[in-house]
């Protein structure tokens, strides 16, 4: 196992990332490539820093790449429906009176 990668935004050491899927649920995906739920593996997810919410990867392959190298995928363009899912998550934050991470609300 390589050195623990850090969030490119807040610098937090990331033992795990949060994943967010298109039906708006979330949990953890750790540096040993384990989800907290068996169902999560089947879902199409984005992966983000649990500390600041920065989106680090938009596929499991990219998330594993990040854990292995500590580097972001070169291509960070998200499909439109992922953007829509991100807005949906942002609205959930707002519904619960939390400030959504900037990454969820920027038009990108
Ligand atoms: Zn962070």
In short, what is this structure?
By secondary structure, this protein is α+β, with helices and mostly antiparallel strands. The chain is 28% helix and 17% strand.
List its salient traits.
17% strand; globular; 4-stranded antiparallel β-sheet; alpha+beta; single chain; binds zinc ion; 108 residues; 3 helices
What ligands are attached or bound here?
zinc ion
Helix/strand class = alpha+beta
Number of strands: 4
Sum up the overall morphology in one term: globular
Q: Largest sheet, if any? A: 4 strands, antiparallel
Mean pLDDT: 79
Residues in helix, %: 25-40%
SS field, number of helical segments: 3
Oligomerization status of the protein chains: single chain
Order of helices and strands: EEEEHHH
User: Beta fraction of the residues?
Assistant: 15-25%
The Cα radius of gyration reads 13 Å
Sequence stretches where pLDDT stays below 50 over 5 or more residues: none
First CA to last CA: what distance?
A: 33 Å
Biggest sheet: strand arrangement: 2-1-3-4
How many structural domains are formed by the residues?
1
